[in-house]
Design goal:
The protein folds into two domains: 159 residues; 100 residues, no CATH class. Helix content is 7%, strand content 36%. The chain has three helices and 23 strands. Strand 2 and strand 3 form a beta hairpin. The protein is elongated. The termini are far apart.
Length: 299
């Protein structure tokens, strides 16, 4: 048995493909237990497919949330803390913590909604223009880095300077950072966004029910974006005194009137709603959720 102290080392040659994360353009928050294995149901799954599936998960607690596109990033990491004694011995007693703050374009409705994430733990996937950064486990599985999130409203603007809202990410485990894996992704960070919340309106027109959809914050008409749901057998839900059912044949979309219509007599329940985002995604509609039921108007 050797009497020498154990020394831990690693090979020191530079990588042949020098991969490193650049300016972070977007952060994707995931549930703490979310892992990318490259497989789904025994079949190969791409990183991009895994992320899109997470964005459109049926339940909010299982979803992935792309945060706003960054306009600036400020490092907030702390340095390792050193201890020394009177005779000059010194040791690093704390490794320091990693953190950064992002700014994003002013959007009062969005910044109000982002407060829902405050002081909770998520895992964060970081994207620059071409690369992603995740934490690699011993078996090769990938996950985001554990962090807490705090979103702030913008401060007051001045005659010469507009203030932007910010999001602070504080990473909980500095040891995780030692297992970063940086790899090429196929996303466009500029267009990669989370779900858009919409509302439904219904109007009785003789024997028909006319349906339109609007983006909740702005009130912009988004009915045409849902044209793929015309006569869908899976995308439309009806609430009949607490019993939820799927319409056997959904309303039909008319591109001339930009409305969905259905015979009033076929709506026997008291409220309608679109199915969850995972169903809409399969039906060909991305990034949409209608969380609230809409009551059928009185005849």
């Amino acid at each position: 048995m050797s009497t020498a102290c154990f020394v831990k080392t690693a090979n020191t040659a530079a990588s042949r493909c020098n991969n490193e994360l650049g300016f972070i353009r977007r952060v994707i928050l995931t549930p703490i237990n979310a892992k990318f294995t490259g497989l789904k149901g025994g079949k190969e799954q791409t990183f991009e497919g895994w992320v899109y599936e997470g964005i459109h998960a049926a339940l909010p607690e299982n979803r992935f949330y792309p945060m706003p596109l960054t306009t600036n990033v400020e490092d907030g990491s702390t340095d390792p803390q050193e201890w020394s004694n009177p005779i000059g011995d010194s040791e690093v007693v704390s490794p320091g913590f990693f953190a950064f703050t992002q700014s994003y374009r002013r959007d009062a409705c969005l910044s109000n909604r982002l407060k829902a994430f405050n002081q909770q733990e998520f895992r964060a996937i970081k994207l620059d223009a071409t690369r992603a950064e995740m934490i690699e486990e011993a078996n090769g599985d990938l996950k985001g880095e554990l962090c807490t999130v705090y979103s702030t409203s913008p401060k007051f603007s001045t005659p010469t300077e507009l203030q932007e809202p910010r999001i602070i990410y504080k990473f909980k485990n500095p040891n995780e950072h030692d297992y970063r894996k940086v790899f090429i992704h196929d996303f466009d960070p500029i267009t990669l966004e989370g779900l858009e919340e919409i509302t439904m309106t219904m109007v009785i027109a003789t024997t028909n029910l006319e349906i339109k959809f609007y983006e909740k914050c702005s009130g912009v008409d988004v009915t045409a974006d849902l044209a793929a749901l015309s006569e869908s057998e899976t995308a439309w839900l009806m609430d009949t005194e607490g019993v939820i059912s799927t319409l056997a044949k959904g309303p039909e979309y008319n591109s001339t009137t930009n409305k969905f219509t259905i015979l009033l007599a076929t709506i026997t329940g008291g409220a309608l709603k679109l199915a969850d985002p995972s169903i809409l995604y399969i039906a060909g509609v991305r990034r949409i959720e209608q969380p609230e039921w809409t009551d059928k108007p009185s005849e």
